């Protein structure tokens, strides 16, 4: 019972950590509003002759918007690209070291923002990428908590990814506090002080090494446990409990005794199409978040009250990502258990059932992104409420589904490396958001219609991935064994 209580405490505090700290950068639109009010990069703006007689109206400032877009581009790129090296750090140096590095980066970033001003706004180019490195390490070290709960593993992974998405609401809270007289400095100093809580959780509610799967009997961790059992059975166990696939099963029947090659999976068509699926959908989300303040300003014709109201609405919807994401994991867990039971009854490979369970999740995520992309492309301000709703559901499904798919479609011994490589490569694609933003602001004269139509067509390409996974399932079912 004591062990179960420790597991629940780890789960809940990890959820709070991801919810309050891990993905705050994606609330960037709320923070940009505050930075603009504080006149960050205001010197880049040129007076608009049409507005000279009205001091209460601010001219649309292309150069200022580009600065904020570039900061978000670098931060979001770092969020994904650094998953590979941070995952390597986690694999090699284990949980405690990885979390202490996360705390260092996060605290340094929040203190830097706290003591910046309009005159030192350039420091945001350093602070925001550091903030994302700390946040992604918090997420990576918490994802292993799913190992404590057996057959609910995918549900918890998607729940944590949903909490990562919902943490963007933190910047909305900072914006609302700012409007009520709480300074930006005070808010970020508070975030810095919270690092003491991260340290305490690292010492008492997280393992020094990795959480093994399946768990050994009476497994415990943290300084309070005072035992070394957590290190005994950490890696190399076949994952055959409670319907979870072993590495050999996921590699395909007929290869159970052969060591699998990381590069074999990294260069597979399954990995390549999953990368296309993730990169296209993610580019939509990053471009939308990074340009939201500018787009709302144009649609509201510069009315700051309207822009503030829609920015708040967007940030509030982001909070509900933590409620949306687990449904994707629950869907995958239930379907996997159902299909594996059917496959056992027919004597077929359970690895085929795992692939089959991923198809509805992949297709539904693509469909949600397609709907979000269509709504975002229509320049009607009230329609953006629906855009916000579809965006948060799509995004929460995207990252939870990505991590869960990698756990069931590839051997577990390569999960960290494949997850990191996937995120790093998709980060390179995400860099397109800045030239796209520059194109919209420059040659297209703030009219994103043709860019959005092109991206909508690219979104259709993501439906190829679930189709190919479905076809691969049919092939594995009809012609066992098979290889990638």
Count of folded domains: 1
- SSE run: HHHHHHHHHHHHHHHHHHHH
- Please report the distance between the alpha carbons of the first and last residues: 43 Å
CATH architecture: Up-down Bundle
Mean pLDDT comes to: 81
Structural class: mainly alpha
Seen as an oligomer or otherwise, the chain set is single chain
Question: What would the principal axes of the Cα set say about the shape?
Answer: globular
Radius of gyration: 23 Å
Q: What's the CATH H-level homologous superfamily?
A: MFS general substrate transporter like domains
> Helical content, roughly?
55-70%
CATH class division: Mainly Alpha
Q: Counting H and I runs of at least 4 residues, what is the number of helices?
A: 20
Gist?
Helix content is about 70%, strand content about 0%.
Task: Explain what the structure shows.
By secondary structure, the chain is mainly alpha-helical. The chain has 20 helices and no strands. The chain has one domain (2-44, 58-253, 260-478): Growth Hormone, Chain: A, CATH 1.20.1250. Helices cover 70% and strands 0% of the residues. Helix 12 (269-299) packs parallel to helix 18 (433-441). It starts with a helix and ends in a 6-residue tail after the last helix.
């Amino acid at each position: 019972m004591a062990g179960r209580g420790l597991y629940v405490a780890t789960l809940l505090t990890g959820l709070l950590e991801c919810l309050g700290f891990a993905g705050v950068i994606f609330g960037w639109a709320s923070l940009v509003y505050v930075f603009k009010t504080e006149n960050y990069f205001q010197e880049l703006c040129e007076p608009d002759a049409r507005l000279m007689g009205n001091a209460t109206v601010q001219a649309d400032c292309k150069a200022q918007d580009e600065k904020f877009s570039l900061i978000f581009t670098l931060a979001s790129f770092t969020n994904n690209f650094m998953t590979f090296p941070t995952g390597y750090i986690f694999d090699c140096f284990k949980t405690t070291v990885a979390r202490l590095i996360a705390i260092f980066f996060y605290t340094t970033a929040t203190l830097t923002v706290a003591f910046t001003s309009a005159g030192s706004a350039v420091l945001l180019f350093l602070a925001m990428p550091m903030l994302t490195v700390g946040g992604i390490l918090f997420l990576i070290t918490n994802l292993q908590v799913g190992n404590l709960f057996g057959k609910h593993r995918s549900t918890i992974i998607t729940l944590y990814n949903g909490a990562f998405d919902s943490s963007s609401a933190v910047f909305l809270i900072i914006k609302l506090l700012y409007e009520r007289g709480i300074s930006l400095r005070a808010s970020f100093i508070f975030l810095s002080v919270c690092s003491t809580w991260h340290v305490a959780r690292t010492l008492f509610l997280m393992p020094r090494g990795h959480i093994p799967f399946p768990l050994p009997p009476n497994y415990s961790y943290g300084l309070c446990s005072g035992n070394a059992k957590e290190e005994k059975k950490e890696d190399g166990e076949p994952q055959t409990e409670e319907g979870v696939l072993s590495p050999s099963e996921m590699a395909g029947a007929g290869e159970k005794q052969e060591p699998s090659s990381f590069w074999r999976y990294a260069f597979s068509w399954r990995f390549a199409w999953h990368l296309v699926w993730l990169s296209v959908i993610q580019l939509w989300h990053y471009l939308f978040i990074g340009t939201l303040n500018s787009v709302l300003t144009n649609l509201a014709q510069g009315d700051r009250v309207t822009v503030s109201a829609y920015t708040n609405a967007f940030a509030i919807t982001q909070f509900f990502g933590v409620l949306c994401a687990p449904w994707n994991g629950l869907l995958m867990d239930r379907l996997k258990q159902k299909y594996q039971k059917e496959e056992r009854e027919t004597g077929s490979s359970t690895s085929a059932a795992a692939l089959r369970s991923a198809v509805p999740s992949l297709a539904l995520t693509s469909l949600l992104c397609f709907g979000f992309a269509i709504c975002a492309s229509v320049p009607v301000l009230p329609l953006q409420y629906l855009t916000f709703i579809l965006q948060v559901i799509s995004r929460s499904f995207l990252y939870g589904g990505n991590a869960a798919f990698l756990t069931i479609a590839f051997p577990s011994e390569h999960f960290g490396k494949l997850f990191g490589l996937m995120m790093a490569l998709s980060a390179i694609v995400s860099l397109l958001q800045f030239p796209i933003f520059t194109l919209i602001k420059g040659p297209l004269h703030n009219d994103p219609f043709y860019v959005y139509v092109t991206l909508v067509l690219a979104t259709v390409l993501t439906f190829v991935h679930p189709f190919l996974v479905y076809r691969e399932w049919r092939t594995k079912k009809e012609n066992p064994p098979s290889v990638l």
